[in-house]
Records
---
Amino acid sequence: MRASVVVLTMVVACSALLGMSAVSWAATDQETVTINATVSAKAKLTLGEAAINFADADPDTVPSIPATENPVSVTVKAQTGGASTVTLTVAADGDLDSGTDTIDITNVTWTATGAGFVGGAMNTSAQSAGSWTGSGQQSGTFSYSLANSWDYNAGSYTQTVVYTLTAP
Amino acid sequence: MSGSDFIAIDRVSWTASGDGFVPGALSKTDPQPVGQWFDRRVDADGTLWFQLENSWDYATGTYSQTVIYTLVSY
């Protein structure tokens, strides 16, 4: 008695029926299915810290105060066009404030590690913190410093900065 | 394919239920088994669930490709 075998296979269109033509005594049937997928632009930014702090220090011995949280991890994920530019910017909402006293926000600077990430100085206008071409994910670190000065009035200063990741 | 961008077809896989149906992943070079039965008469019902492995590396676009199911009885 001859055993019967029924086999169902699925192949991508260009390689359909590969090797089947020699089986002249086989019965076949086919169905075609179209697969569709949509990928839309999206961006996700993750910073390792929600706040950074600069400890009090003698300006003569510590002219540049490193942030207690250094280095701060940063992860960028984006889907965009293959030749499009993904940008990361940071803008301060104002100078460091302590009541009516201020420290110019440009005294806060950062250095960066990781492909595409760049260092700079805070400003109320948007400053580049990184850029990349095409989709993908990138990881790096930011290390922040505050330029110290005898000119600063005593007080507790604070300000908010906003990082913006854009994937066109 | 979406213009010059593409997602590797083997990122599309499926799971299966029903006697004789098997899970797998698409290939652009080789036919992949979806089911096999050894009875002289076959009336098999099953279900296939498809999934696309997601990645941040995909470029934006609308991707499309055709696959062909072939049932062969020897």
---
Amino acid sequence: MFKQKTTEQIKSASRKTDSGSYAFYNNPKYRGMIYQALLIFGLAYFFYAIISNTLGNLEAAGIKSGFGFLSNAAGYDVLMSLIDFDSTDTYLRVFIVGFLNTILVSILGIFFATILGFIFGVMYFSKNFIIKKFSVVYVETFRNIPLLLQILFWYSAVLATLPGPRDSLSLGEAVFLNVRGLFVPKLIGEGGSGFVYAVIAIAIVGIFVLRSWAKKRQELTGQQFPVFNASLAIIIGLPFVAALLSGFPFIVDYPSLQGFGFQGGITVIPELMALTIALSVYTGAFIAEAVRAGIQSVPHGQTEAARSIGLKEKKIMSLIVVPQAMRVIVPLLNSEYQSLVKNSTLAAAIAYPDLFNVFVGTALNQTGQAIETIFLAIVVYFAVNMLISFIMNRFNGNVELVGR
Amino acid sequence: MQNIFKTEPVEFKPAAALPAPSSTVGPVAWAKANLFSSIPNAVVTTLVVLGLISVVPGIIDWMFISATWSGASQEACVSDGACWVFIRAWSQQFFYGSYTDGQLWRVNLSLLLLFVVIVLSFTLPANSRLKVSIPLFLALPFVCIAILDGRLLGLQFVSTDLWGGFSLNVLMAAAAIIVAFPFSFLWALGRRSEMPLARSISVIFIEFFRGVPVLALFFMGSVMLPLFFAEGTNVDKLVRVWIVLIFFMSGYMAEVFRGGFQAVPSGQYEAADSIGLGYWQKTLLIILPQVIKVSMPNILATFVMLFKNTVFLLIIGIPEVLQTLLTALSNSNWLGGHAVEGYVFVGAIFWVCCFGMSMLANNIEKKLDTSHRN
């Protein structure tokens, strides 16, 4: 991005500099140098002033600097952690716990937002008037209400009004929903479960092999292969057969009401639920707009041409419209995913223990080391966003127009 | 002799067109085409209509029919419906925060000034529009601060701790975007500049403020910024947040302007060069007006984002409208669970403002769109 040349640069490079006929300060080259020197001096002074002020202020307040605090004991507990954690662990472990929680909510949010966004984006093109309006109402409602308000709404106006543990809503005595959260059964692998996991991995690899084989065969012979159905059969069938062969080495841990709360299974705390719902619904509205824009960007002539050569309506969508729409959708998705990760910091409002809340919130309050904690948090968000950008750009390379 | 060829000139009158077949016009045909075009469509329509019938009357009943509209305290709310008394009792706080009673006209005056300047910037004659409205806009935040604070004008002093409510959201967003304007313009110019250092500094700045979560910026504003000032300087909390919002906004707006600069045809730059205008003359007189015009929809979209983000101020404890709502909900006289009413009310205010602005952006975009693709 530093190397892009504007038309002005190219022009000035090709312009002849005839230094004899005018004063040297009118020469754009020297002028640029003078301006940049001034800029550097200004910035250097600015940073010098900031750094010396900061050091002075820190000294006056008696705050240590440096990252030494990371190995100190944190002394507080975290509401939810994916790895073992107790209050005697270090700040570094707090950092990791928070990071994992942020990743968890981001992945959940991206997953559900993408599904919602694509469903409502495609619904806009329904021939059914009501369905179309439904999509418009969804997008316009949730896009125009601040995300923080939505998070608080789900958390304190919807989830907080759920019944208590004793009268929780249940689905077949396995899934329970109450004011303490969502309780779902957990699958615990016993001896021999490694075999099933290995078979799942083989099935996933097998699908990719099958896809490339089918594509090659179609290019050579023109014969098509039902890749989707075959993949579905492989991914469900193979692990099932493997589980049967090894005598189903799993036990299901159902949540059950014991005393005042539920024991066993997986607990999804209401904070996580509220944040995931709000993030997915809000970002989903933006993704729906992106999908709509993508599909609208495909000229109608493409659909008509596809019809004229006799493709079925389903095939027109999957072979002609969607691949072209993806070129518009993927870059937009990239920025939506990045803003979802950035917006997950709003967890602080409902005390979901994400990186920002446990690290910048609590750790900063306890140590007073504002610069170090905020710096670490910012670096993480930058890194995650760069990772998303990298993945989406790779994906974009796949859908981009190939110049021949 | 009679000329048989001579006849009265008869004007050709086509017979009136027959009306369209009754099966293609009218509500029945419309419903047939849009609601019941196929069996799955008909099923979906029926299901959705049934769903709406089972939900909507309940909502309407809750919101309007069995809602309580008048009263002074929570005791008035005896019915099952919404308790709008809650909103009514707190409406002054929702809108003005805890701004001193009797001085509210100053908040109104500030909002009025903002409104007048916006209207002027659209209605002034085209030749003087930018020349008049840009200085007005740039002066506006400072005039509003003087009015609200009051010390400079010899009015009663109102501390910034008392400013709040929805008017704070509006004024904060407006003040931030107005001051961010010239900065973002400079960053965009820097990013297009031919000076490598200026370009890299602009790129780093823009990408930093676009890449960092807004909340991190607010935290920086409230805990890091005080460290940057010389010892003993005490900068007001609202001013620090304002600075943060300005930087945040100028990062986003710089990208909007960059798009605008690219949209101006290169012939405009060349024509300006050829009549011998200098760099600033070219930029300010020829390019900037066109950039502002083409980026207007995106500027509005960015403003909507900023406006929604002003709610985040509650996390660092500034009494904007949502923070006021949370305070009201935890007030001991109003513990009757009015959360839904409160969120619906605040959400509706934001929705109306944001939706209105995005409609406006759409209209401007349509006006600007000179292509004839559809």
